[in-house]
Design a protein that fits this description.
The chain is built from ten helices and nine strands. It starts with a helix and ends with a helix.
Length: 247
């Protein structure tokens, strides 16, 4: 255990206004790949852009083919110790909540109550016409068995899409504003498993820092915001948080 681990443990014990910001790296220990990495879905297929999805039946079918291929990873995944520790620290009053770039729903599964999903959730589908939402699993199964894009059961249109932010689709302004407000309220901001390169989400650590928060970055690779941070751990998230928890 290093001096930095002990320092972070003290900061977590002392705070009642911490915020965790999480990226793909926190879920790799749950078996969910970083789709941007070599071998990930986006390295093998051209992503379907939102405007194309809305305009083209062929694009919608390709979208569902890609989503159906990756569905098993999400459906079978369970929270790892990192997700559990963040939920525990929230329950103990140290964290205000979690802002996540992930779409896997594992923070909620681990017990976190305040979770802001910047990029939506893969666990639901949303009709782009009537805006009704439904559990995703049955619609993926429909596509796999029928090889047909499932229609919306509410309005009958075929523009049913996972409740995630697609390429070319704007983030939900209310979620982004709420995330920025949480960052401004934080006195300790934990950036975990994010490259901190995808905007506008990557601006949140800077918002927290400029508002007076201590910034801690845990990521295996260096990030552009490392020089801004009060502590940096280039290590795995589970091993880092478990060591901090033991302190």
């Amino acid at each position: 255990m290093s001096k930095s681990h002990r320092q972070l443990a003290r900061w977590i014990r002392e705070t009642d206004s911490g915020v965790a910001f999480t990226g793909a790296g926190i879920s790799t220990d749950s078996g969910i790949s970083d789709f941007r990495s070599p071998g990930g879905v986006w390295s093998r297929y051209d992503p379907v852009y939102y405007d194309d999805f809305m305009a083209s039946a062929e694009a919608r079918r390709e979208y569902w083919r890609q989503k159906a291929e990756s569905h098993g990873e999400f459906a079978d995944a369970v929270p790892n110790r990192s997700h559990e520790l963040l939920a525990e620290w929230e329950a103990e009053g140290h964290l205000l909540g979690v802002v996540t770039q992930n779409i896997d729903g594992l923070h909620q599964a681990a017990g976190s109550q305040q979770v802001l999903e910047l990029h939506g959730t893969v666990r639901e589908v949303e009709c782009q016409d009537c805006r009704e939402r439904f559990e995703a699993g049955p619609y993926v199964e429909h596509f796999l068995s029928e090889d047909v894009v499932p229609p919306c059961p509410a309005c009958g249109r075929d523009r049913l899409k996972h409740a995630t932010i697609s390429f070319g689709q704007s983030l939900d302004r209310d979620i982004l504003d709420a995330s920025s407000e949480l960052a401004r309220r934080a006195d300790l901001f934990l950036a975990l498993g994010s490259s901190l390169e995808v905007q506008p989400a990557a601006s949140l650590p800077g918002v927290a820092k400029s508002s007076g928060a201590r910034l801690v970055i845990v990521n295996r690779e260096a990030t552009p915001l490392d020089p801004l941070a009060d502590l940096v751990f280039h290590a795995g998230i589970v091993e880092t948080l478990e060591t901090v928890a033991s302190a």
